[in-house]
Amino acid sequence: MLSSVRVESVTHLQRGSAEVVFNLQVSGHPSYFAGGVAVHNCHLINNARQGGYRKLLGALAEINPALRVIGLTATPYRLGQGYLTEGKHALFHDILRPTTIEGLVHDGFLAPLRSKATELKLDVTGVKKTAGEYNAKELEARVNTDLNNYEAVREILKIADATGRKSVIVFCAGVEHAHSVADMFNELGQRVGTIVGTTPPETRARIIELFRSGELRFVTNANVLTTGFDAPGVDIVALLRPTMSPTLYVQMVGRGMRVAEGKEDCLVLDFAGNVANHGPITAVEPNRKGGGGGKPTKTCPECDEIMGAASKTCPHCGYEYPEKEREEKDPNWALGDEDIMGAGRKQRKLRGWVWRRHISKASGKEMVKVSYYGENLSDQAVTEYLPVLHDGYARDKAWSLLTQIAERSGAYLGAIHDLDDLCVEMNGSKPPQRIEFVKSGKFFEVKRRIWDADLEELAVAS
Fold first, then answer.
1. Segments in 199-311 forming alpha helices (H)
2. For residue 1, what pLDDT band results from cuts at 50, 70 and 90?
């Protein structure tokens, strides 16, 4: 039997780079047998067998071949590599999604975001890309100009003052850019702090303390205050750092989603075009190597396959988008002031639902079709498709959703043998009282299902 090991002390090792290393001194022998490892911000782990994390975990697995690893992250994907479960040598085998951004906002654990179209729009046309991301040197040279910095800071100040915002974090394209933007704030009479990778720990801690306390209203940074930084009062996130990385995009705007007393929401000022590039944070999907990284995607209404927004035919099931839909811009990506949280959402009270076995006309594959009927007979039925018999990601996503719905509705899936059994069981279960949905072209996407218990909790909270 393995005995437990007590951690005697944790020492922060100062290194010559921005990398932070901690040494754990354990009781007894300095080497110990790890039965399990929990990794915070596990999106930093490479899908390939490369990098410090994989080296450490590989060494621990040599000691204990039965080593179990669990990772925690809000962004389970990597630039150019897809989800953390994808690839021949991916460390993780499954992704558990116990909640959603919408759910956490609804329950009061996260503050909602608002996005606002800015007058200044940084132009990155022609900037080269390296490993799927903008070349750092070229990007900084392109955006770090006196005119850009003046226009951006002027607009930030104008909006912050007009809306009464008190805590502003600015993400910049590099170290020089962060200092240049800070200099512009100073020239316009504002006190500002700047944090970059080489900022001494004492100085960094002091700036963060002043920022959190409200004594410092503005902070600029470069590649530092993305993962793990916590300042609940942040009510403006200014993006002066264009990125092709969906992870970096979500991590940056996520700094404004902490809840704080008196804070209703956080305003995202997207000078960099990241919201238009990646879409609402409630619908971000990873970009993969060779997949045109960072461009908006859409989901096939037949099989849930994710593809580029310009695709005319689903590469998985063969569904062909109608000619009219090909020509019209997907309204989910016509971004306006509120679209960072997903636009056009509607709520409808229901009188029931019907589950049916469905066969795709395009592919001939079977799936489940769910129709939600509004309390008014004139309401158009809202229909969604669950490709539970398909392969790969589409199937896994469908089963994950089905399991959640069944749990809430009181259905038992343990004795299901085929789609007919499934539909009989679900039709005999309790439907939600309301749904929240968006419409894209002639198809629907159900974003949330609300049962009695949710409404009772809402009534008690209010």
1. 201-213, 246-254, 274-278
2. very low
